[in-house]
Amino acid sequence: MDFKEINEAAEGYRKDMIQFLRDLVKIPGESAEEGAKMDRAKAEMQKLGFDKIEVDPQGNLLGYMGTGKKLIAFDGHMDTVGIGEMSNWEFDPYDGYETDTEIGGRGTSDQEGGIVSAIYGAKIMKDLGLLNEKYTALVTVTVQEEDCDGLCWQYIIKEDGIRPEFVVSTEPTDGGIYRGQRGRMEIKVDVKGVSCHGSAPERGDNAIYKMADILQDVRALNNNGDTESTVIKGLVRMLDEKYNPEWKEARFLGKGTVTASQIFHSSPSRCAVADGCTVSLDRRMTAGETWESCLEEIRNLPAVKKYGDDVVVSMYDYDRPSYTGLTYPIECYFPTWVIPEEHGVTKALMETHRNLYGEERLGSKETIDMRKARPLLDKWTFSTNGVSIMGRNGIPCIGFGPGAEAQAHAPNEKTWKDDLVRCAAVYAALPTVYCENN
């Protein structure tokens, strides 16, 4: 395989990739509203001669190149978050901007740039005759990731019956190769009280005061250490082999966290004692933590046990319809996942990068110093569709994608043109490298 030829082929599609991304930016497409973006992506696949193109009932776009035995997938989600406070933007987020090196606009890093590179990576495979009987490339353009990461792949695996050999997530990686991420879950804590007139609060049982006690314990769970004398041992304990058999990967991913993200109450009026209070907890999980263990640690907090049956700890569910109208309910549980350094997929992606670009991260003049200061093999700080691909279903997953993590969900979002080109080249070469060694 001629890696120089692959890189030159990717460079030859630079203008086409830039135009495709600019077109996508101009189409708003928040979660469950990304249908028009899908139409544009489907048209690009048709123009480039994909061998088979399907849209499943949930609205995921599936484009195939080749007819070989191993199915190797490249995933990117088409939906974006909203634009937030418009005054924080220096340009129109749905018009964007372009310089010699950058493209700005909502979705450029998170994460339509990855979709652009993956589609053109598959095209390069076809152009250069890299497709053979060993593999088929599948590019998935997926939905609702921002609302419920992994829901799309749960549908693809369980309902479409598609199970690839491995999946490359094209989420932004700042020029690095990412082999895992912390998981997350959305926990709900409901507290019951008894209302009474606010002029005599002693006659009632204030649910907000109960919740205040519980939240102090939640904060301790996040902030405390793990010494023997600590009543509420902090989440840092999961980095210690004494408490966690998976402590090595936990140290790689970083400790779990928990924080209160929303609070609600019920009361007859502003002149009454609150008879109900609910808090949402954002729980980030490291290796070795499960949804059962996370719920149990909240239930075992001293304040929760103190209030007994007046407290219910549970997990949220997600059941919002996709843009096609299909509803596919799932728990708001997004498991931790990590692929080992010595795994064949990890080795193949590292070898591909080494042959094309060496053993350090590459970047623009703006990003190169920060990128080279970080190891090539690293992990995400945020969550991706890998929570379902590998976390729920055990399919090997690894990440390499254009753009920057810090640009995700931020005002003035942008990506870099060189990233698009390099990622397309890596995607084009990876299946052949993998098949030669596995």
Automatic annotation (TrEMBL):
The keyword Hydrolase applies. SUPFAM superfamilies: Bacterial exopeptidase dimerisation domain (SSF55031), Zn-dependent exopeptidases (SSF53187). It comes from the Bacteria. Residues 180-302 form the Peptidase M20 dimerisation domain. Its cofactor is Zn(2+). Keywords: Hydrolase, Metal-binding, Zinc. One of its GO terms (molecular function) is metal ion binding. It holds the Pfam family Peptidase_M20. GO terms for biological process: L-arginine biosynthetic process. This is Peptidase. It comes from Enterococcus haemoperoxidus ATCC BAA-382.
